[in-house]
Design brief:
The protein is an all-alpha fold. The protein is built from 69 helices and two strands.
Length: 1481
């Protein structure tokens, strides 16, 4: 049939439009004869060209609408006979899956144009509505809805992957009879809840199918409807997309149609009973949805579920609960007392969030909450203005008072409480407080009264004290908040005020200290005073600012003069870096856009340029590795040391006596001072150069072109001579800023070209060392060419020319430099889009570098090759091992897509592989340093595609010969590469026809087995395997098994490959009796051979045999055989690793594991013993020991088990063994305690635990040691809380109970989050909570129980422990020393202060809790109470004396907030108050 011409198509469209209009305008009475409808039907079911089909759909839409209208006029009567015949004779057949209308709808529902999709959907909807209203004819034996049932069922059978099917199902699911809906349709759509493709359609269908479950006979129709959703509401088993689709599409529709279903679902999710998983994480978003939609209020939610959500162990659940209680639809309700208390509780429960992502989410939620509070305030004020009554309602006044109280609580308790401890752990508490204060300021700061309440003198001092924090995020957040403070700062009216003078004194004093934290605190303090007191009040002449900066510069010159005369002592005593960094920060605050400003600052900037050069002339004696007047090899000839440490010792030599040796002198401070001074000098030089260029552009008058060139070349000199990465990385950044500023000025453009030529020349003159990956040379080039296509083209072409291995004009040193520079330049993020331009040339040049006889050239070539290929091949969001599963392998790029991007690489690889394959006359490649392995990795990193056949065929023939390589690594990667080149269908043919027995040698056989194994694991689809192909594959595997069983001439490596291949086949095709049985027999023989004389590869074969036996026949006999004394270490480890997969492990295996754990075998390997101990304790994975087996080993455990495990811990020096033995000891003691509490070994075990657990849990111990302590404690949790709901008495002696609780107290506040979570889980479990709670609530529960226990028992040991916590002798001594040291020295002389081992626990918080506990005790005045009171009085006297001395040494000025003494003076009164409160009982 010929296609219609354009004229014919136009005529068809007109005819369709004419008919559509006639049908649309016709009255029902005019349609009774069916003539017009018949003509419309003929056109609607005709096969028309694509350009007429959109109009054809419009005609069908009008047709079905008129038919429905006609049906409505007839009422319950039948349609007229002509119309009825038309419907059942012409229209109904067109709706069957192969009918004309069905085909038309399917084509246009999947059409790429949106109008076609919408029109087809409208037609289908109109047809469904018409059929739904159609009367049933008397002659019909079935329902009229059968007209659309075939189309609906065909769509269901075709699956939900096609959008057209989804539209059909969605439209017809409520039209077709219930018996026509397939039974598994709901389950299939529930499985697709995690898909974001057509999620709206899928979810709508799911909602309709769920609604149909309400028609059941169940009394609780809501529960019947919702129960299928419960497995998909567990966030631990489903992707987040499932919950997103449910809350966005499914639940809103269900709750709107069936409001009672919300409360039913909340009850199902909030109740962890009935054997269901904990679904509380899903309860929160469902409750939030109900609240936001207005179906329920927060007050109506179950209080128990709400509290558990607010205190849940998962921070994400707590955050969602916080959003729930602060997200009322009626914002005015947020100001009610109960709602404010809920919000405060949620804020406190999230006060410590270790994850930065959670902190960001928390700040966002708080921002939204504060905005709602602001909206509520506006609404109340508006209501008050509009109220006719002059007096406001009592409720509104109460709400405004509540808001004022909330603001006061927020600033005073939450923010100030955290900022007062900003230099104490945990820092996240202060970070969150600063985040919230910033949000509070953004929301309410426009109100002058609120802003005044925020920036009080005390709070400004607290924010200034944040500048002394060791954490940069704390400093920056506090600095940004202070930037919004009013001018002048409260408490700092001008520079002459005592507070300002004290701050300046502390700042300049801190510049002499070596520690970076103190220097940065001083710099921040100067900048804050400069911005708020100097710049804010300065006039246009900048006179005050210039004088302020000149004063700091004068101080720098004074220090520089001393360093120039006394280099070593000057650098160690005062240093240069602090003042240089301060001047750079001060200059960065300037505005130089006006000519007046540039004129006023020009002299200062040129003065600073000279100072920078003087600083370099001083520090280069240590930092520069090129002596003055000589570079490179000349330096060695001149006898100049080529390392910074040696240079430092030379500088320190004049300070040393004749009797001193170099070992008694520490050059660290000198080296650090020189590095940091140079780094800060480079940043200062870059700042003073770029500031005029960026702010004034071509109108700048500070610098000439020659000045800029001189500054640029100074940076290049630094980058050539400095080889310390921490220093030159900063210099490179400074130079990059200069280059960016120069590029903006067209008059300076030729400087960039000159600097680039200077660097390319430096590469070729062989004077720069290649050590440390060419040091700063790559970064200097990168700074010049970054993101500049023209410069990149020129530079890369030149570098590839210089680095080519066959370029005889360049030395190996130049080649190494070229490759190092190429790696840094090409892999920089700014070149991401430009990388494909250079990728092919760089990769091929790197491969050629393998031919170099120089190892350095080959090494840098390999590094460049691997980094480029890894960047190109590794897909996003894939872990380290891309070959771990089929799913990760499926994320690889295809050969066709990769070849289209880099068309030269794969032909290059093919040619190389063909040229270097083994031949009869050549056993190995000509190049002994072959790049075969990395080249095959390229092929392995891609996957098959149908449109890449041409390049794939060539690679297949090139790769296949390498399956027989003499190197097993090459065979393995070649097998992976070849499997990547084959389609699933072709893979089955390959597996069926592969030659195994007839291969010429062991290498070829091993390579073919590896290839076959990779086909099974990553290519072949199990469903595609037919019985014939399975038979062929199994026949070949059986032949190979027979050959290797009768005469294992091919060695253990082939046995390993064969067993590994068979296991892959069984995983793909399922267990087959013939092959598996033979393989198991071969595995048995392989294990027997492993026990004999050691042979190469025998261990691999034994491990594969053990793995196969355990995966196919995991019986007790198999396990015992592999755990016997003659089995290898690998066999034992394999069994112990798989025990957790068994449904139940019996007593014989447990007894054997206990023997291995206690080391009763003389030749026991420590790795096996560690694994056995882990299996007993369930530290990593839980093994399900059969209860009968535990009873069976009861005698052994009671008699010797506990003692032997304890002796393992006591005697071994192996750290992993100790860490494994401690949880196992806890497990054994807990087991025996349940059987026989009075056994001597049990008491010895408890004594060991009481001694070892406090030691292992100490904050100075390693994380694995502390983790082992918490695992041991977890086993003893049933005996830890004797007065709790779940325990009535304790089986532990009082001293042991105390020791274990001291351990638990430490672990609840451990530095590691995972340890804190396990400890919190212990407290949650024994407190009778249905779920694990947050660490904050767990600590509250522990202190509550401790108070009750101490009150009930009156145990003096417990009381003494509480009093020691309250006194906190160590913390008090540190604070007092900080005050006593102030002014007596310039600060800490330690360059690197030892970090606290625990950055989470705050001993002052423990002191507060202990003080409250002691104050509640009802006891007579005793000696301990008197001692506490005396200590409080004595400490108060010491504090007053120390504070007076510090102020006196400060020349009468108050302490500065950036001083350690100020922080200590803020804390010591609180310590004294806590002691007084404790002694008041």
């Amino acid at each position: 049939m010929l296609a219609p011409s354009s004229m014919e198509s136009a005529a068809l469209v007109k005819e369709l439009a004419r008919c559509r209009k006639e049908v649309a305008k016709a009255k029902p009475s005019e349609l009774q004869d069916g003539l017009l409808l018949a003509r419309a039907t003929d056109l609607g079911v005709a096969q028309l060209p694509p350009e007429a089909q959109l109009e054809q759909l419009s005609l069908l839409l009008s047709l079905f609408r008129q038919l429905r209208a006609l049906s409505a006029t007839t009422g319950d009567a039948l349609l007229p006979k002509p119309v009825q015949d038309l419907v059942y004779g012409r229209i109904a057949p067109a709706f069957i899956p192969t009918g004309a209308i069905a085909a038309l709808l399917l084509a246009h529902l999947d059409h790429p144009n949106k109008p076609n999709q919408l029109r087809a959907a409208d037609v289908l909807g109109a047809a469904a509505r018409f059929v739904g209203d159609l009367p049933i004819p008397n002659t019909s034996t079935s329902s009229h809805t059968n007209l659309l049932v075939p189309l609906f069922q065909a769509a269901c059978q075709a699956g939900a992957s096609r959008r057209a099917n989804l539209v059909i199902i969605n439209t017809l699911v409520d039209v077709v009879p219930a018996q026509a809906i397939p039974d598994g349709l709901l389950d299939s759509f529930l499985d697709f809840l995690g898909s974001s493709d057509s999620a709206n359609l899928r979810s709508t269908i799911t909602t309709s199918l769920l609604s149909k479950r309400r028609n059941s006979d169940s009394l609780d129709v809501d529960r019947t409807m919702l129960e299928p959703l419960l497995p998909y509401l567990d966030p631990s088993r489903n992707s987040p997309t499932v919950m997103v689709n449910l809350t966005r599409y499914v639940f809103p529709a269900l709750f709107k149609s069936y409001p009672s279903s919300l409360s039913c679902l909340l009850n199902l999710l909030g109740d962890p009973g009935d054997g269901r998983d904990d679904l509380l994480p899903a309860w929160v978003p469902v409750a939030s949805l109900g609240v936001s939609l207005g179906h329920v209020s927060v007050r109506d939610l179950p209080s128990s579920s709400l509290r558990e959500a607010m205190t849940h162990q998962d921070p994400q659940v707590r955050l969602r609960a916080y959003e729930l209680v602060t997200g009322c639809k009626d914002v005015v309700q947020l100001l009610d007392t109960d709602m404010i208390e809920l919000a405060k509780g949620a804020l406190c429960q999230n006060a410590v969030l270790p994850s930065s992502g959670c902190r960001t989410d928390f700040a966002s939620a708080t921002f939204a909450y504060f905005n709602r509070l602001a909206q509520a305030t506006i609404a109340i004020h508006r209501a008050q203005r509009n109220s006719a009554d002059a007096s406001s309602p009592a409720t509104e006044c109460e709400q405004l008072r509540n808001l004022a109280k909330l603001r006061n609580w927020f600033l005073t308790d939450l923010v100030d409480g955290a900022l007062q401890n900003v230099r104490r752990p945990p820092v996240v508490r202060s970070l969150l407080a600063l985040n919230h204060l910033g949000v509070f300021l953004d929301t309410f700061g426009l109100d002058p009264s609120v802003k005044a309440a925020i920036f009080t003198e005390d709070r400004v001092a607290l924010l200034l004290s944040c500048q002394a924090s060791e954490f940069s995020e704390v400093r920056s957040r506090a600095r940004s908040i202070l930037a919004s403070a009013p001018t002048p700062l409260p408490g700092y009216q001008d520079l002459s005020s005592p507070a300002s003078q004290a701050l300046l004194r502390s700042a300049f004093s801190a510049f002499a200290t070596p520690r970076k934290t103190e220097n940065e605190a001083a710099t921040s303090a100067l900048c804050i005073l400069f911005e708020k007191l100097v710049l804010a009040s300065d006039d246009s002449s900048h006179g005050g600012a210039v004088r302020f900066v000149d004063g700091v510069v004068n101080r720098l010159e004074d220090v520089l003069k001393r360093v120039e005369t006394e280099f070593a002592s000057g650098m160690e005593d005062v240093g240069l870096h602090g003042l240089v960094a301060a001047i750079r920060a001060l200059v960065g605050c300037l505005d130089l856009t006006s000519e007046t400003a540039q004129s006023n600052w020009k002299a200062t900037f040129h003065r600073l340029h000279g100072i920078v050069l003087r600083v370099w002339s001083v520090t280069r004696a240590v930092v520069s590795l090129a002596p003055s007047g000589s570079t490179g090899q000349d330096a060695v000839a001149a006898g100049v040391p080529a390392h910074e440490i040696a240079r430092a010792y030379e500088a320190l030599a004049p300070m040393m006596d004749e009797d001193d040796d170099f070992g008694s002198v520490d050059p660290t401070r000198l080296i650090s001072g020189c590095w940091r001074a140079t780094k800060e000098a480079s940043e200062l030089l870059s700042t003073i150069a770029t500031l005029p260029l960026t702010q004034a552009a071509s109108n700048q008058t500070v610098w000439t072109k020659e000045d800029i060139d001189s500054i640029g070349r100074q940076h290049l000199q630094w980058l050539h001579e400095i080889r310390h990465r921490g220093t030159f990385s900063k210099v490179a950044i400074s130079f990059a800023k200069l280059v960016e500023a120069v590029k903006r000025d067209s008059s300076l453009g030729d400087l960039i070209d000159a600097w680039l030529e200077h660097e390319l020349l430096a590469i070729t003159n062989d004077t720069l060392s290649t050590t440390r990956r060419s040091a700063a040379l790559p970064f200097s080039v990168l700074s010049i060419v970054a993101a500049d296509k023209v410069l990149l083209d020129r530079t890369v072409d030149k570098l590839i020319e210089l680095g080519h291995v066959h370029n005889a004009q360049t030395s190996d040193t130049t080649k190494v430099h070229a490759f190092n520079i190429l790696k840094i330049v090409l892999l920089d993020a700014r070149q991401t889009k430009l990388l494909p331009r250079y990728f092919e040339k760089a990769v091929m040049t790197a491969v050629d570098a393998f031919a170099s006889p120089n190892w350095n050239v080959r090494n840098v070539g390999l590094i460049l090759f691997s980094t480029l290929v890894h960047r190109s091949l590794t897909p996003a969001r894939v872990g380290q091992d891309m070959y771990a599963s089929r799913l990760s392998l499926s994320s690889r790029q295809t050969f066709a897509s990769w070849h289209s991007r880099y068309p030269r690489i794969l032909p290059f690889v093919t040619d190389y592989l063909n040229a270097h394959r083994r031949t009869a006359g050549r056993d190995i490649a000509d190049n002994k340093h072959s790049p075969l392995f990395p080249i095959l990795i390229i092929v392995r990193g891609l996957q098959y595609s149908e449109d890449g056949e041409t390049v794939q065929d060539g690679l297949k023939s090139a790769v296949r010969p390498y399956l027989g390589s003499p190197e097993w690594q090459i065979r393995q990667v070649a097998a992976q590469a070849l499997s990547s080149l084959i389609s699933p269908v072709e893979a089955i043919k390959e597996a069926s026809n592969i030659k195994l027995i007839s291969t010429p040698g062991s290498n070829e056989l091993h390579g073919n087995l590896l290839f076959l194994g990779y086909l099974f694991r990553s290519v072949i689809i199990a469903e595609d395997l037919t019985a014939e192909s399975k038979s062929a594959i199994e026949a070949k595997l059986s032949e190979c098994i027979d050959l290797q069983s009768q005469k294992p001439a091919h060695g253990p490596l082939v046995t390993h490959g064969l067993l590994w291949c068979i296991q892959g086949y069984t995983e793909c095709a399922g267990p087959t009796s013939s092959v598996v049985q033979k393989a198991l027999q071969l595995a048995d023989r392989a294990l027997a051979r492993c026990s004999g004389v050691p042979r190469p590869g025998a261990g691999l074969a034994g491990a594969a045999a053990a793995d196969l036996l355990l995966s196919q026949k995991p019986t007790t006999e198999t396990a015992l055989r592999l755990l016997n004394e003659t089995s290898s270490e690998d066999d034992k480890l394999a069994v112990l690793a798989r025990l957790s997969e068994w449904s139940e492990v019996d007593g014989d295996v447990l007894a054997r594991v206990l023997e291995l754990a206690t080391g009763t075998t003389a030749t026991m390997a420590e790795a096996v013993q560690v694994a056995a101990l882990d299996a007993l304790s369930g530290a990593d994975v839980v093994v399900n020991w059969a209860e009968q087996g535990l009873v069976q080993t009861k005698h052994t455990l009671c008699a010797t088990g506990v003692r032997r495990i304890g002796e393992v811990y006591e005697r071994t020096r192996c750290t992993p063994l100790k860490e494994a033995a401690l949880p196992a000891l806890g497990w054994a003691v807990a087991r025996v305690l349940g059987w026989a509490q009075n056994e001597p070994d049990v008491q010895q075990g408890l004594s060991w635990l009481a001694d070892y657990l406090p030691i292992a849990s100490h904050e100075d111990q390693s994380q694995p040691a502390r983790l082992s302590a918490v695992y041991a404690l977890r086993h003893l949790s049933p005996y830890l809380f004797p007065e709790s709901q779940s325990q009535t008495s304790s089986a532990l002696p009082p001293p042991t109970l105390l020791a274990l609780h001291q351990t638990l107290h430490c672990l609840l506040q451990d530095d590691d989050e995972s340890i804190r979570l396990v400890a919190s889980d212990i407290v949650s479990r024994v407190s009778g909570l249905p779920r694990s709670t947050s660490q904050t609530r767990a600590v509250e529960l522990w202190w509550a129980w401790t108070g009750s226990h101490v009150q009930a028992t009156a145990d003096k040991a417990w009381t003494a422990w509480m009093e020691s916590l309250c006194l906190d002798e160590t913390g008090y001594a540190e604070d007092l020393e900080s005050i006593q040291r102030h002014g007596a020295s310039d600060g800490s002389d330690e360059l690197f202060e030892v970090e606290r081992p625990n950055l989470f626990r705050d001993t002052l918080e423990d002191a507060s809790n202990a003080s409250r506990l002691l104050a509640r005790l009802h006891r007579p005045s005793g000696e301990s109470v008197v001692l506490v009171a005396q200590a409080a009085h004595g400490r108060e006297t010491e504090f007053d004396r120390a504070l007076q001395g510090a102020v006196a040494r400060n020349d009468g000025l108050p302490l500065s907030p950036i001083d350690d003494a100020w922080d200590a003076a803020l804390r010591l009164p609180r310590r004294i108050r806590l002691m007084r409160e404790a002694s008041a009982s």
